[in-house]
Amino acid sequence: MPFKFQLSDLTLFSVSVPLQMRSMSLADRTAPAASLAVPADAPIDASQGYCVRALPITGDMPIISVVGDFLCYMSSQYRHCFIDLDQPFENYEKKFSSKTRSTIKRKVRKYAEHCGGTIPWSTYRTPDEMRRFISAARVVSSRTYQEKLLDAGIPSSAEFIREMEALAADDRVRAYVLFDGERPVSYLYCPVVDDSLIYAYLGYDPEYMRLSVGTVLQWLAVEQLFKEGHFKFFDFTEGESDHKRLFATHDLRCATIVWLKRSFRNKVLIHGHRLSCQLSASLGDTLERLGVKARVKRLLRFAR
């Protein structure tokens, strides 16, 4: 594989494993893999193997297999959604059905009416602006279920703020906040990798869910990005969701693949992680069949 790896840790079944890791970007233009081969990069002493995120693949592959001296674990397979920004915004609008386009615009109008006719929102891109962005974003993030239950809100550490400011100094970040008067209600944070904006953090105040503030902010930001004409892709990265599929123009079949040195310990880690994922998926399917999955998700969003 013609790219460099960095040594980092990957958590498998609550155990941290040192691996040589690489995340593929849309700019890599890598042909989809039809079969799995251990990366050719020389192993590092501290490493237990390799991990490649967002690797394009031609189709479904074995979840667990043996490749040479390594256990190969396809920990996730998904549609990697992205927006092609290299076109007029009018062409992008045409990708939506007339019904969907009307629904989105109605949500934008509804929020404008809620705000008295004009939607207050801001774009942040300079180092000075990043401080104001994180202050507003943290107000929203502290209210989200992602932060309360999953510890997955936007960070507030000094290290993260320094990183934001460094990216802003190189014009390699865009951030957005939607307001209701002076109150921030949704945020979107997108660092730049190569010619792509990365969908890193999105959050919204659960009290404003009925007003679809996450959708409203995404639409306003994307429209502005098309007019700016500075980037080629808006990359929704790993995982699938209705939100990503709604806004995306394209998707690639991708996978996160882990190669671990063959050992009893690593075999236990892989199968333990796989079992944990299966149990989680089974629970979700059971709640869906019982007709209570949406209710449970709402309860989690508003959990204190």
- Integer count of domains: 2
Low-confidence blocks of residues: 299-304
Which structural class should the secondary elements be placed in? alpha+beta
Overall pLDDT score: 87
Task: Find the CATH superfamily of the largest domain.
Answer: Gcn5-related N-acetyltransferase (GNAT)
Q: Helical residue percent?
A: 25-40%
Silhouette: globular
Largest sheet: 12 strands, mixed
Beta percentage is: 25-35%
Radius of gyration: 21 Å
Compute the separation of the termini in Å: 46 Å
Number of helices: 9
Query: What's the architecture of the largest domain in CATH terms?
Result: 3-Layer(aba) Sandwich
Keywords:
304 residues; alpha+beta; Aminopeptidase; 2 domains; twelve-stranded mixed β-sheet; 12 strands; disordered C terminus
Provide an overview of this structure.
The longest helix has 26 residues, at 264-289. The chain folds into 2 domains: 6-80 and 251-301, no CATH class; 87-231, Aminopeptidase (3-Layer(aba) Sandwich). The protein has helices at 89-93, 98-114, 127-141, 145-150, 158-169, 213-228, 242-247, 264-289, 293-301; strands at residues 6-12, 15-23, 49-56, 64-67, 70-84, 121-124, 173-180, 183-193, 196-198, 201-204, 233-235, 250-261. Strands 1, 2, 3, 4, 5, 6, 7, 8, 9, 10, 11 and 12 form a 12-stranded mixed β-sheet that branches. Strand 7 and strand 8 (183-193) form a beta hairpin. By secondary structure, the protein is of the alpha+beta class.
